[in-house]
């Protein structure tokens, strides 16, 4: 994504850096108006022993929107993922699904409600084919009772159709998934979640280990999932990956929220500055003697 990415959602009204308006999230960011969010957290907190992993974090995820959760290592992103995906219940605050309080016994409960999580390891077996990894435990069958058999032909056909509908070009669905690039594996995982009925797609650092081109591939499929009406939670530490596809941005630091911003309320430069610590980054630049040279007339 280049300088044109800021036009991805049309014209953007940008508040000047440092103004009060630039630090406020728009209540109607993303164009959803008063629609009930698919997911919402209100003042959620989580502790592990004496460690506060998450404190008073609120955010929401609407259908057809990408909510980006940004923060460095230790910011609380993983804990938030685990609350949203049903691994951990929050110790404080409220977690709502479709506007109603939700209490999941585990990730299976969340998946049954259409909340699918794609982790960095993708839960794929490298030596197995693309189509076997796509179904992996949910393979289509034919026949009944002792005559029940795997329907490999239907499985291959379904995978080709699903990948094609997402605009994903995989040469051969019989090739081992380990022969795919990192971006292609991520795209298969996204298509798999969409096929099995995900309404909310939580992506854990999907671009962290990818080069520029492959990261662009994944961002393209995130946008396509959003355009199909899914609510997407994109976890990342890279504002340059988040900004091209994001509609809403939640910034975390040491378990606490630094604010939630609609796309119209923050520029990519401001987002980067907020993540980097603005004044601290300027001070470091000065200490290292890397200030920009004065402009001569």
Explain how this protein is built.
There is one protein chain. Helix 5 (182-195) packs parallel to helix 6. Strands 6-9-10-3-11-12 form a six-stranded mixed β-sheet, with helices on both faces. The protein has a four-stranded antiparallel β-sheet with strand order 2-1-4-5, covered by helices on one side. The chain has nine helices and twelve strands. It has one domain: Rossmann fold, CATH 3.40.50. The two termini are 34 Å apart. It has 297 residues and is of the alpha/beta class. Keywords: ATP-binding, Nucleotide-binding, Sugar transport, Transport. This is Simple sugar transport system ATP-binding protein. It comes from Planomonospora venezuelensis. Pfam families: ABC_tran.
**Mean model confidence by pLDDT:** 84
Shape field:
globular
Low-confidence stretches: 1-33
The tally of structural domains comes to 1
The span between the termini is: 34 Å
Strand content range: 15-25%
Please state the structural category: alpha/beta
Number of strands: 12
- Helix residue percentage: 25-40%
**Number of helices, counting only DSSP H or I runs of 4 residues or more:** 9
Whole-angstrom Rg? 21 Å
| CATH class term | Alpha Beta
Keywords: ATP-binding, Nucleotide-binding, Sugar transport, Transport
GO molecular function: ATP binding; ATP hydrolysis activity
Pfam families: ABC_tran
InterPro entries: AAA+_ATPase, ABC_carbohydrate_import_ATPase, ABC_transporter-like_ATP-bd, P-loop_NTPase
